[in-house]
Amino acid sequence: MKPMRWVLLGLIVMVAFGMSVAGNDYIGAAKCKMCHKVQFTSWEATGHAKAFDQLKGDEAANPDCLKCHATNASAELPGVQCESCHGAGSAYKKMTVMKDHDAAVAAGLLIPTVDTCKSCHTGAPHDQKTIDYAAEIGGVHEHKAK
Ligand code: HEC
Ligand code: HEC
Ligand code: HEC
Ligand code: HEC
After folding, report:
1. How far apart are the C-alpha atoms of 21 and 55, rounded to whole Å?
2. Is ligand 4 within 6 A of the CB of residue 47?
3. Which ligand is located closest to the Cα atom of residue 98?
């Protein structure tokens, strides 16, 4: 029966590994902060961090507002958090994965492009200021507070 045990163990390991690779749950900005204090501090001062505060009353529960003013369209993840631009972090947050660019990208880390910005900065439903994304993208963690 011993070989059978190894087969079972193997299956359990495969399932557990498969889940951790497939898993792309949102973990929230506080978890990123543990290792990225500098980015967190500069992000915290931006309008992105405070985007949820723009919603008043029922708007804070309105999916049509949450999709751009919260992360993963969830009021539990208020504001345009790290994972709105970098992708859900549960699978890439581990130090060993994070240190390896290719492994992190394979686990769901996104390096944002101008298209990432334009997923929310569509020009609708608000009249928006003209933002030069190509110029802003390099300094996205240095945005000044509004
Ligand atoms: C356990 C520590 C740790 C956690 C937690 C963590 N990171 Fe990282 N991250 C690192 C390390 C180490 C690097 C590689 C060195 C560096 O660039 O700072 C890195 C690199 C990055 C990079 C640059 C990747 C590249 O290859 O250009 C991004 C973007 C990033 N992390 C975003 C995040 C986000 C978003 C979260 C939260 C969802 C997060 N990290 C959570 C440690 C961590
Ligand atoms: C998930 C949606 C979303 C994404 C993705 C997004 N933004 Fe924003 N952005 C917003 C919202 C909402 C505001 C308004 C925040 C406020 O007024 O509190 C905003 C505000 C801004 C502002 C105004 C200044 C400020 O800090 O308030 C700039 C500049 C900006 N975004 C640039 C970018 C760039 C560059 C990218 C891509 C790297 C990007 N945004 C990606 C939703 C998003
Ligand atoms: C498609 C993405 C998107 C949706 C959906 C969205 N917003 Fe916004 N919102 C933005 C962006 C981007 C900004 C920043 C505008 C800028 O600075 O140019 C913003 C800014 C704001 C502001 C700050 C004032 C202003 O106009 O700059 C308020 C208030 C606001 N939004 C409320 C709402 C409400 C209420 C809803 C739901 C009815 C909503 N938003 C839906 C993307 C969106
Ligand atoms: C609005 C989109 C957006 C948000 C929100 C955002 N980032 Fe980034 N991040 C970017 C872009 C774009 C770059 C690449 C910037 C560049 O080319 O210098 C980047 C780069 C990084 C890097 C690489 C090193 C560096 O500083 O350039 C790390 C680490 C990182 N982000 C972590 C975070 C963490 C942690 C948060 C949340 C506290 C966060 N980011 C929030 C868009 C975003």
Report:
1. 35
2. no
3. 1
